User: What shape does this take?
Amino acid sequence: MKANDIPTPFYIVYEDKLRRNLELISKVKREAGVNIIMAFKANALWKTFPIIREYVTDSTASSLNEMQLGNEELRGNVHSYCPAYTPDTIGQFIAGSSHITFNSINQWKRFKADIEAWNAADGNHHVSPGLRVNPQCSVIETDIYNPALPGSRFGVTADMIGDSLPEGIEGLHFHSLCESDSHALAKVLDAFEQQFGKYLRQVKWVNMGGGHLMTREGYDVNHLIQLLKDFKSRYPWLEVIMEPGSAFTWQTGDLVTSVVDVVENQGVKTAIIDASFACHMPDCLEMPYQPAIAESCEEATDTIAYRLGGNSCLSGDYVGDWYFRKPLTAGDRLTLKDMNHYTTVKTTMFNGIQHPAIVFCDKTGECSYLRRFDYNDYKTRMS
Assistant: This one.
């Protein structure tokens, strides 16, 4: 089956593009001597995990469901971080994780005894506890994606720690980037060392979080590798962990839709598609940003401007404008680019809109369904 034979809407993931990213991530991991783990919050298409397992098996989870998915499908170590654990969940997190990062000193004090009891009872499965810290430094311009903005609920600042880390803490975790380059990491790393460097003799590992978009075209991979090597030379006893989200599946897949109608109101043309920004591309409205469309072109004197509207009843379910050389008509296919990372994991069933199928395209161009959705998926989610 070829992509053109598949009815819309559908997400499509390309094996060759996925392997390209994984090979680059493996290069950084190998040459810098760090552990790079996959974040489920960006990618949870578990039927592609047999490919990912060829390169990376460790993962980061922020919920019990993500942790279970890591243990079942990636099968390596799971590094868990949750803003707040509860007495009902902490035991399951401990049993299923290799590392657990606590968001506050209060959380560590509350559950320290649980970690220590587990480690004392099971010598074959040591759980390494860490503390998330906030270096109060970030280059992220969109507040909704900035974990280090003033008043953030994530991590503790150096003034909250005092002269030494709480007893028993084995690692530090910071996360201040979002689809950022290596020079942004250098800036954050400098702030981290200035504020938390005095504690590094007390720990075994440092997790530099996510946001390292090393697979984006133009990213200075050599600078990243040297930056990490230099950090490790200053602190040779530390294991360095990175957990990029978007980098694993950046530019590996699209959302293929069809125009179902074209409407015009007060001179504004809107092509209504058989998908929804609100339901199937929520970051386009949250961030917001305008995705590339393969069939569109640059604005010119002879082009036609269209908004794209989702097929839901939400008034704000539209983005635009894009430009096309020919008028759009019902049945035209439109390919919204780069709709894998942080997209397939964030979809909803709002309004009962048909959820796009998920399709895998192998290296030969042959396609197969990973998942198709129907009425039962909508109905059973409601009750």
DSSP finds twelve helices and 17 strands in the chain.
